[in-house]
Amino acid sequence: MKNATALTAAALLLGAAFAAPGQAAAPWPSQPIRLIVPYPPGGSVDNLARLLAPALGQRLGQTIVIENKAGASGTIGVDATVRATPDGNTFGFGVPGAITGLPHVMKVPYDVSRIQYVSLVARIPLVIVVNPSLPDATLADFVASAKRQPGKYNYGSAGNVTTPHLGGELLKQQTGIDIMHVPYKGASPAVTALLSNEVQMFPGDASAVLGFIKAGKLRTLAV
Questions:
Q1: Is 33 exposed, middle or buried (0-12, 13-18, 19+ CB in 10 A)?
Q2: Residue 67, H or E segment
Q3: Which residues of 103-130 are buried (b: 16+ CB within 10 A; e: fewer)?
Q4: Model pLDDT for residues 81-103, shown as the tens digit of each residue
Q5: Claim: this prediction has a pTM higher than 0.90
Q6: Helix, strand, or coil here: 155?
């Protein structure tokens, strides 16, 4: 891949626009904090949020309650964050592509200008993994097989305009292969589809597939 940066996911902590001046004077945090994850449980973003929550809760002296609001490529969860009362008690945990990229390709229910980015939490390497039933041992093998059989292979993603989707399209653009994109509601169902050979390739976050790679249930072609 020529552009490794394009295949790096980043997790962001975000919140609704700043509270009104009168609200800002109140003690904070005075109640449990909602952390909205716009993807289903078990995916890389959800796993990161669950790693962050206990330490963040201890630091702030409040319970962090994680809410998974999956669907529509992450827009449902982002919209729930934007619509929350801007009192500092609701935050979202998202990926830049789903937040900033989607408005360019589809109508989203939220106004991007109302989102306040709080912190970059993590940078996550992406891996290209395949179902081990495929004979391909390297990325070059996979590209050669896809060129011999255009349209035969599918690749899964966490949804339209998510990092795995963009990574898959970048791979297609750079190699000239013809493989079909199949969007799911998150990385976890996409990986489940890969394990059952419903899709044959997943260009996704390493944390979502590492356990299956170690168990020999998925084969890594590239990082």
A1: buried
A2: strand 64-68
A3: eeeeebebeeeebeeeeebeebebbbbb
A4: 988 988 889 999 987 766 777 78
A5: no
A6: strand
